[in-house]
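Let's do one together. I've listed all components of the complex below, 733 residues spread over two lines.
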Amino acid sequence: MDRRTIFNGRLLPVALLLPQLLLTIFFFYWPAGQAVWSSLTTQDAFGQGWVFVGMDNFVDLFTDPLYVASIIRTVFFCLAVSVLAMGVALALAVFADRSIAGRGVYRTLLIWPYAIAPAMSAVLFLFVLNPRVGLLGRWLNDHGIAWDYALNGNQAMLMVVSASAWKQVSYNFIFFLAGLQSIPRAVTEAARMDGAKGWHRFRTITFPLLSPTTFFLLVVNVVYAAFDTFGTIYALTQGGPGQDTQTLVLKVFLDGVINQDIGSSSAQSVVLMVGVIAITAVQFRFMGRKTVS
Amino acid sequence: MKRRTLLATPIALAATRVRAAEKTKILWWHAMTAALADQVNHIANGFNASQNEVEIQAVYKGGYADTMTAVIAASRAGQAPHLVQIFEVGTGTMLAARKAVKPVWELAKETGLAIDPKAYIPAVRGYYSLSDGRMASMPFNSSTAVMWYNKDAFRKAGLDPDKAPATWQEVRKAAETIKAKNAAPVAMTTSWPVWVQMEQYSALHDLPFATKSDGFDGLDAELTFNNKGQVKHIERLLQMSKEGSFKYAGRDNAPDPLIVSGEAAISFGSSSSRGDLVKSAKFNWAEAYLPYDPDIIKTPKNSIIGGASLWTMTAPGRTQAEYKAVAEFLKYIGKPDVDATWSQKTGYVPVTFAGYELSKQQGFFTKNVGADIPVEQLARGTVTPNTKGLRLGRLPEIRNIIEEELEKALQGGQSAQQAMDVAVTRGNRVLREFAKAAKA
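Okay, and this is what the predicted structure of the assembly comes out as:
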């Protein structure tokens, strides 16, 4: 079914579209265009001179083994954060969906972490995990487990993944809970009568029916992990030890803001932009087909 | 004559009123917080009270890196403040800023206000001067690296608490004893690992950190800190870390709390930590010279500075009167009493000879044992091309690179030699990029 509004003349539709178009032009096309332009130049920090270097910045990036390693690390990081954040959220949602006493309180508490600023959540994690002042960090070291994320790359990664996932659990929880509540009772009741028990019923009935929610969340979580975890990682490890927790978006910041390498930083943001466009395109294709069928 | 006086009186009155209202306003961005910010304001107020032509306003702009980012953005938009405090590692970048900055020597020449570089301690002045001695930015808050140690822990380990270990061999032995006797949870750590263990170590031992006099003689300098001397020291740190007598506790000043809390028996860090120790340390501590390795040098050279200096910025439409006002202010902060007060209140070193002498006369160093070590360490011997400081573009990035490779080595992923080789290769690429951009 196609709904269509018929306008007489062009003035009104243009006027209605204008605010949105202006926003998009000023806050997306203009800066994005500048980023593309800067990515093709080398310029000094104070912007007093520049030379056109063509694709040099991109060639430098992709011939740098550290950048390639950073891409792989980012993919791993995104998947780890998404799986952890979604897994925990799903489990919590399934439990909160049951009729238990005080579930309103329970749900509210689970939504709280979403309201915490990334830097603050990082500080909270430091209170827990710092090897010297953190509760858990200290306890581990006192019990013969050498916990020191300043020098152990795997531990540092574990920490930034946990901290990043923790913040996203709330968001996922809301969506999973809504998804669970929209599953028709009749279907689960029927399954129950057919004798499908707990895990079996979840695996064969509930989870498949949740799949649109799951897919949507997967995309959102990957985008979150790739772009919005910068504050958390920067406050926790600054990308270290070595470059063990340096993700692509952190590198854009370090190179652009700290190192004042405008050309390379712009090139990196162009690469990221292409990545987001690709993810979004995939999402539209997939989701679009779902709705059509 | 009489007529003129009569006529002139109201005009003169009006003029005074106008002048009072229209003092030349100078904006100064700084990066100091807490007690240091109070002292910055103290200086600004003191200057404002000392004359009535110029009014300076000191504005906090975030940490060093934030301040630098802010001034770059402001400069690009034509809105730079008159003065900005830039950390020492930003010097290379600022020098390459061409028309965006006005070097001190140029400012002095244009305004006719003599600023004599010779009044400033060479190790401080040198960091901010061109190879030919012309001073580019005004020395302000300078510190250097020193060794801190916990006298109680030394006593507990059976070491002489009144005799600081002077060489690296002695330091290592002391750390091993402290570890063996379990006199402190951490035997030895270091703040600012690259600044202290690489940059200072290179200067003390007269080892080049980079070619071209550590970058002073040209943008085409190449890093050379993967030489035998420096690698040997990194090897020592790696071994000590493996044996547990050295604990790596993070980048920059993250390890500072270890010494202040009494957890670490020996640490290296900025001399400006003194205030913290005086205020918070609940044990006997001492400040000492940085150790050296007698196998490399018999008498160690001067250490190099850290901290920041003041840069004069240009902006479209800025008047000669404003530059003159800036110059007046720069002269003011170089006055012996201003310099001495600033250094005594903050823990930074006096940047002028006269300021140092004044502090001495006032008996500051007899009341604060060890507080003169940073100045003495900075001023000892003759400055060589390897001890002037580092003049490298994008030095903060190079520091990070060394840090990353060092951390990899500490995790056991590579040897000291490999770490330094990789850091040199990566760092040189950064220098080439910088040179390309600076010539663009």
